[in-house]
Amino acid sequence: METEQLQRAIETILFAAGEPVPISRLAFALETDPSDIEKAGDALADDYAFQRRGIRILKLDRAYQMVSSGEMADFVTKALETRKPPKLSASQLETLTIIAYYQPATKAMVEQIRGVDSSYSVAALLNKKLIAEAGRLNVPGRPIQYQTTADFLRTFGISSLQELPPIEKIAFGEPIELPQESAPEQPPEAQA
Asked: What are the tens digits of pLDDT across the range 60-72?
């Protein structure tokens, strides 16, 4: 195999793998001597570095890996920061769910549904940019209303709120009916 074709094949395999690929595995796949793989891989790595490309090929012990250039780290981080979903506690997830379904929702509404103080969860969701302020409710005290953000949609992989699964919503101002417990049946001997 010609050097240029060998380099293209190595480049393709490394790009597709996304992790270190041992020289022995490359040699086996390309039916070439490991020393030829090493020469082609080293030359390819040098070429990427010389051209100051956005990606580099690193030699790690007896393997190669395609990586982004360290010089471009800030751009990569900025562009991909929403790829990793933020870690949410159970209370944050409950709060986010309520805001997503009832938006715009106030903290008091969230607390009424959850039955506990939700200040920390609301603050954490604001900090993670999953919710944002949506104005103030026109009632005494003028509480802040919250709604979900575009980051919320991206994080959960949906394009609109209509894609949320349907739920049975609580109607505010109406009493919540709890299921009635039936009296336990008594054994036949107790009935007589």
From this structure: 778 899 988 888 8
